[in-house]
Write a sequence for this structure.
């Protein structure tokens, strides 16, 4: 591959996300198939009221909210986030998401590269 | 540490960046000192006309432009980016940055965790 790869998020197809309701979508912006060595960057969009049910996994999240407002529940603690908030969620932490605002909630979420 | 860490970027102190001119700043949003296991998230701000001179290093970048416009030169190829663009820069690629727009250029840049 070249020394770089560039894409506008709007040019990346959306995919549905399991374990959600209300039309949550994901776009894989920078991912293993373009040759990233260590971590992958995705963009999530939650329409008003949409949610992702609590779940856990062995990898961490690093999240940055671009637009809108949401609630990320970690264990039994609700954490409200808005544009400009960065959040780290530990591996194995139980976590769920809900758009609690009045517009789309859009955030970047970085994870370790999948095997 | 807790199962999560949250911070608004505006609450993170800015630091100057070497190898730049025009008042470039960095904020370390999610970093090794809060216990991230694999990668660190920073936010850069380039005032109008500010630049970072070309350099290379052994780690990759994953960049997402939040606001404004800039030019990222990889090797001798200029790549223009704007809000919503994601970009991957390979390890060891020569790269430099310049705000080519008329407002602040603000972007997220994720790197592997420093030793």
């Amino acid at each position: 591959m070249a020394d770089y790869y560039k894409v506008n998020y709007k040019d990346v197809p959306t995919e549905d996300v399991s374990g959600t309701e209300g039309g949550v979508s994901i776009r894989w912006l920078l991912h293993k198939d373009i040759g990233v060595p260590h971590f992958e960057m995705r963009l999530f969009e939650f329409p008003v009221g949409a949610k992702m049910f609590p779940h856990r996994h062995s990898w961490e999240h690093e999240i940055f909210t671009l637009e809108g407002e949401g609630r990320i529940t970690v264990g039994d603690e609700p954490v409200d986030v808005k544009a400009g908030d960065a959040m780290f969620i530990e591996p194995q932490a139980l976590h769920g998401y809900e758009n609690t605002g009045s517009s789309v909630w859009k955030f970047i979420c970085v994870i370790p590269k999948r095997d």
